[in-house]
Amino acid sequence: PVFTASYSGFVNSETLETSGVLGSPLLECQAGTNSPVGSYTISCTNGTLASSNYSFSFVNNSLAVTTVAASITWSNPVDIVHGVALSSTQLNAVGSVGGTFAYAPVAGTVLDAGSAQALTVTLTPTDTNYTPAVATVFINVLQATTTNLLLASENPAVPGDVVTFTSVLSVVAPGAGMPVGQVEFAVDGSTVATSEMTNGVARFSTSTLAHGAHVISARFVGDSQFSGCSNTLATLEIIDRAPVTGVMLLGTKLGLPLTLNVTNLMEMASDPEGDTITFTNISSTSANGGLVSVNSGIITYTPPTNATGSDSFSYRVADSLGLSTVGLVTIINSQSATVITPVQMLTNGHVVVYFAGAPGHSYTVRASADLSGWSDIGNVTADSNGAVQFEDAAANTLPYRFYRIAPGL
């Protein structure tokens, strides 16, 4: 530092400028800009002072080297979400000198969600020539985001069955923790139950869902630490019974194709809830390797080469809610001129008689109520494949009905 001397003791109203004193004293001190804190002597000696009228005496002084206040540079951290522990990413203050940083809250602390939460640091310098410094910044802690996985214990389910819907809450990273609170379950948009979560899981069970397709949803209402979220079951919850199919037995002359109307096949299917039933598909091959196809509502079965005995193919029907059932058609390949297969009872009470004969040949259908007397009830002609079917409209008037086929005239 630069020192300045002061003078006293002039007489006759003289000043330094008028006294004739020449030169200047020598002012010296051992302290420098990097000297430790303490008191240092400023010595004053003659230097170049000279005067013919005055003599000189010198008075020393002192210089105090005091501590310097340390400084801290620290900006407000970017927002975090609940569950993120404080770390060097947030606690990253920089001091003007080296030393120890003490943060409050400490690293590893998980803060509750909230705005403008104070973070404080105290810097204690290693160099004792510096005094400690304190700084405060503010951080926003946002609610952690959650997701909701909704599961069903059964889908589809039979009417009256107990179905349990489970809502599983998860926290989206980097958030962490375990949500608590309630989940609201809704059926077709109407809340039907509220369940408390245990370890992030809530459940709702019911056996009263009506027949049909239902939209099931679950909503976590959220809390101070976690945001709410909703989800819907990935597919509609189906309450239904599958359609019922019968086994149709048909016959064909050995080696000849067989045709069958899909409408007649569907007469054997029913639905427990009365849903509309539709024919969906058919197997392309039979159990023994025959070919099966459907075109314009007509099913054609072509038996494999040298086929004898029984063969079968499957078909599928579905109701309006998508539940389906597989049915079976069994075919008897016979060498006889005519083969009667089990009859089919239609919903209107009529009976359809199927049999196989010679292509283009005429046949008489005969019926009896007790096997003691037979009556001719109709004449039919076999198609090009030898297939014949006859619908008996009077069958519902008798408790029993037996049939036989005879070559026509």
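(ticket continues) Second input and output from the same batch:
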Amino acid sequence: MHLYVTGGGGCLLRNYSDIASKENVTFIEDICANAKGYEYLAMQK
């Protein structure tokens, strides 16, 4: 399973945990990524 970490909290995880060393983790550094995703879902209705 692959983990995608988004938003500002992801920046903290990347800098202060050992999760960043895992190869199945992708960090999306855009702090607006969550809002963009929800906006996309809202437009689908």
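Agent notes: The chain has a mean pLDDT of 88. Helices lie at 8-16, 33-43. Closing as not reproducible unless the customer responds.
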